[in-house]
Amino acid sequence: MAKRLYVGNLSFSVTSENLKELFSEFGSVKAAQVLVDRETGRSRGFGFVEMVNDDEAETAIARLDGTEHQNRRLNVNEAQPRIPGGGGQNFGGGGPRGGY
């Protein structure tokens, strides 16, 4: 089964193809994507890699997490599942200091 990895603290010059090449060293990469800002088209400094084999994905995590790539220290770990509708700001009140 394929395993999806989060790759953080990427240099802004890293492309999806660069990311795929980096992880291909450790096994078969199904997909690699560096996320970009919709408005500017600039890299957001992180991406995701989907590896075909779980053991190869674990090896990639062990070998790449904390290493330097293009003068940046990579954060590599298993991606967490998306939270539906998440990402927004919490405007709810409450708490001891009151709310709206």
Please tell me about this protein's structure.
The protein has helices at 16-24, 54-64, and strands spanning 3-8, 29-36, 43-51, 68-69, 72-73, 75-78. Helices cover 20% and strands 31% of the residues. The protein is an alpha+beta fold and 100 residues long. The strands form two sheets. A four-stranded antiparallel sheet has the order 2-3-1-6, with helices on one face. β2 and β3 form a beta hairpin. The longest helix is centred in the middle third of the chain and has 11 residues, at 54-64. It has a single domain (3-78), classed as RRM (RNA recognition motif) domain (Alpha-Beta Plaits), CATH 3.30.70.330.
Question: How are the SSEs ordered, and which strands pair?
Answer:
Blueprint: E1 3-8, H1 16-24, E2 29-36, E3 43-51, H2 54-64, E4 68-69, E5 72-73, E6 75-78
Antiparallel strand pairs: 1-3, 1-6, 2-3, 4-5
Characterize this entry briefly.
Helix content is 20%, strand content 31%.
Shape, principal axes of CA atoms? globular
Tell me the strand order in the biggest sheet.
2-3-1-6
Q: State Rg.
A: 17 Å
CATH architecture: 2-Layer Sandwich
Instruction: Compute the average pLDDT.
Output: 89
Q: What is the β-strand count?
A: 6
CATH superfamily: RRM (RNA recognition motif) domain
Descriptive labels:
31% strand, 100 residues, Alpha-Beta Plaits, 20% helix, 4-stranded antiparallel beta sheet, alpha+beta, 6 strands, two-stranded antiparallel ribbon, 2 helices
